[in-house]
Amino acid sequence: MNIVLAVGLLTGVFMFHYERPAYLEKAAVIGWVGDNTPAERAGVQVGDRITRIDGINNPTWEDVILHTAISPNVPLTVDLQRGAETLKKTLTPEQVNADEGGTAGWFPDEANTISEIEPSMPAYKAGLQLGDTIISVDKISVRSTSTISRVLQQTKDRPVELRYVRNGQENSLVVKPELTDQEGKPAYKIGVVCSSPMVVEHLAVGAAFQRSVEQNKKNSVLIIEIVKRLLTKKASIKQMSGPISIARQSGQMARQDGWLPLMAFMSLISLNLGLFNLFPFPILDGGMILMLLVEGLMRRDISQPIKERIYQAAFVCLILFAGIVIFNDVMKALPGLAKHLG
Fold it and tell me: Quick one: which of 82, 136, 138 has its CA closest to 112?
């Protein structure tokens, strides 16, 4: 029923308002590589296309992001297409903090469409408008918001030429960046925020159900992959979240606009519970199924005292596991709690 609920909730999300960044379903072409990141150290360059990652051929950006996120500190083999050349690279995603998964430091190739403009900043004064798409800064092609910021830190307060597209026509203007305070650090800005183009669909019942099944199958494979890595010691149990982290993330989803983000998160939690309950571990439903299969092969019941000892041992292991996960949750929450109280 947990799995049925997960499919049902996600079907509802896809029917009413299926919104996602357009780049997620596109080929994984690199638009920017961060300084001193695993991708840069591995030799990944802007314009490279990821043709294979973690055994997946021709991945979309969604595939790349998900498999990078579940692989902190785990080496990944990546095939890149650079012009007519195919390159094989190995990189190890880094974990920025305890609440996040792995990151490689690469960003998608996407349009820089202006979604916000600060009235007192150079971009507004120069005449840029909402909806304009910036295509180059100082004659350097920019294919991600991060690239714009990187170029501005190099040009500093020197006037730069911006080329942009408005209503299908290419234009240019000159703007002088200003030195501002950004999260306690000095940074040169022109006062624009560029957002990823979004795709919004309202799917029919049948199409929404099919998309929900596909998405849940993909999420199930990822969950099983994480468990496999835990068992083979390729991942840390610290990556797992318990009730405290789930409550915190639920609060974050509830504070977003509308109720659809919370429904999508509920679907993921329900799928996790359903799959976890099917694992062949005593006390869980999967363990009960395994026990019945063993008794079927033996053609007789396992003696009650043996069953009781198995369940007692399993119960202790389950309690210890829950205790470790909750302890990890508390340790993750302490830095944020201390900062909040301070």
Answer: 136
Give the per-residue pLDDT at 98. 58
How far apart, in Å, do the first and last CA atoms of the chain sit?
Answer: 44
253 or 220, which is more confident?
Answer: 220
Nearest Cα to Cα of residue 268 among 236, 244, 241: 241
Count CA within 13 A, CB hemisphere, residue 139: 0
Residues 6+ apart with CB under 8 A from 220: 271, 275
Answer for the pair 190, 122: CB distance below 8 angstroms, yes or no: yes
- The closest alpha carbon to 106, from 151, 183, 43, 22, belongs to 43
118: closest CA among 194, 186, 188, 192?
192
Mean pLDDT lowest among 137-141, 144-148, 270-274: 144-148
Residue found by looking up tokens 């909806």 in the block: 131
Contact 25, 60 (CB under 8 A): yes
> Is residue 299 a contact partner of residue 292, using CB atoms and an 8 Å limit?
no
60: helix, strand or coil: strand
Distance CA 108, CA 122 (A): 27
- Residue 109: pLDDT over 90: no
pTM of the model: 0.74
Are 322 and 281 a contacting pair, CB within 8 Å? Answer: no
pLDDT of residue 5: 95
The mean pLDDT value for 208-218 works out to 93
Reading the block at residue 167, the tokens are: 């209503």
> Position 258: which residue type?
G
- What is the C-alpha to C-alpha distance for residues 74 and 67, in angstroms, rounded to an integer? 11
**Are 282 and 308 contacting, i.e. CB atoms less than 8 angstroms apart?**
no
Question: What confidence category does residue 52 fall into, taking pLDDT thresholds of 50, 70 and 90?
Answer: very high
